[in-house]
Specification:
Length: about 350
């Protein structure tokens, strides 16, 4: 007697082959979760489909007729994603997986990139903790070398128009200027709990005091006026840090994690007027713009952590899935450096970032 079960065997041509249409988001860190959209993805004969990324087996967390959710295992690299169901294999889709560049770090904001493509990241430490190396340099060949020592609680870092690296110390309320050789000098003091920093197109430096103030340090037309400090804007205090980024129009964007799961990104115009650019994120942190003025921010969107892309029409989608992300920096050739709480990762996204200086 022929049964339904005998018809639904792997060698029967009437077993529907799973088909994949797209992966969302298109990139992930190891440990991140992605959604696969397609058809014939539901369990068959009480057997849940399984997935592979290249040669690595990936667990399927959810399986429905048109959608499946998988988790990207540790050790996975960029490769073809395939769903296997009852002996049938789907068509492959490319999944981009970030690979580690540097570990045993402690970034609390975006990494910084110099004109030669070297990346800089902090070992920030807990409040008041002195660490052996405060800032590391990751060279283009991924070689890592100590760059700055004896800078207490290095927090926000950014390159200025002069080619020097600037770093805030949240413990001291000070911004330091660091030469290409790693020599440190004091640039500005009295910045409260100094966290995020960013330069505008005129060379003015903006510093976020997480207790509620955005400071502007003027570049000045003369040595006498250079370094003057102004209160640029005030915001709700942050429980962690302010993160700053400018778009091409010269608008300053600010995030500052609070206890809310419906957090806003603030936009501050050149006159210091503050509006809400986007609301609905969880623990939004480091940000960067691409050349088309799309904003990318390390945050949670609808409960999923990663890098969120927000376009000029305020539409938000997840661009990269991954836990513990605190910031990012665009590199050359469409690549991006992703900072987690203890490491830097590298992944190709085919996105050209906005020039910062």
């Amino acid at each position: 007697m022929t049964t339904l079960r005998s018809l639904l065997t792997p060698d029967k041509p009437d077993v529907p082959q799973p088909h994949l249409d797209r992966v969302s988001p298109p990139a992930a860190l190891p440990g991140g979760e992605i959604d696969i959209h397609g058809s014939h993805l539901a369990p068959l004969n009480a057997q849940i489909p399984h997935a592979t990324i290249g040669d690595i087996s990936a667990p399927v967390l959810l399986s429905r007729p048109t959608r499946a959710t998988i988790q990207v295992p540790e050790g996975t690299i960029t490769g073809d994603l395939v769903i296997h169901r009852s002996g049938q294999a789907s068509n492959p889709l490319n999944l981009r997986v970030a690979v580690p560049m540097a570990e045993n770090l402690h970034p609390v904001a975006n990494p910084a990139v110099d004109a030669d493509g070297n990346i800089y990241a902090t070992v920030s430490g807990s409040r008041g903790e002195a660490v052996p190396v405060s800032i590391f340099q990751i060279q283009r060949d991924f070689q890592i070398r100590p760059f700055v020592r004896d800078l207490l609680n290095a927090t926000g870092i950014a390159f200025g128009p002069d080619g020097y690296l600037y770093a805030s110390s949240r413990a001291e309320g000070t911004v330091y200027r660091i030469s290409p050789e790693g020599a440190i000098s004091t640039y500005a003091e009295g910045m409260g709990i100094a966290t995020g920093i960013a330069f505008d197109r005129d060379g003015n430096l903006f510093v976020g005091d997480r207790s509620g103030t955005i400071f502007k340090i003027a570049t000045g037309e003369t040595p006498a006026t250079s370094g003057e400090i102004f209160v640029y804007a005030t915001l709700e205090p942050s429980i962690a840090a302010y993160h700053l980024a400018f778009n091409d129009a010269g608008t300053l964007f600010v995030t500052g994690p609070t206890t809310s799961s419906n957090q806003a990104i603030h936009a501050i115009d050149r006159d210091g007027n503050t509006t809400v650019f986007y609301q609905g994120l969880g623990r939004a942190q480091g940000m960067a713009f691409d050349v088309d003025d799309n904003l990318y921010v390390a945050a949670s969107l609808h409960g999923q952590r990663g890098i969120v892309r927000i376009d000029r029409h305020h539409r938000a989608t997840l661009a990269v899935s991954g836990s513990n992300l605190v910031g990012l920096a665009f590199l050359e050739d469409g690549n991006v450096a992703l900072a987690t709480r203890n490491a830097l990762y590298h992944v190709a996204l085919d996105i050209e970032g906005r020039k910062l200086v």
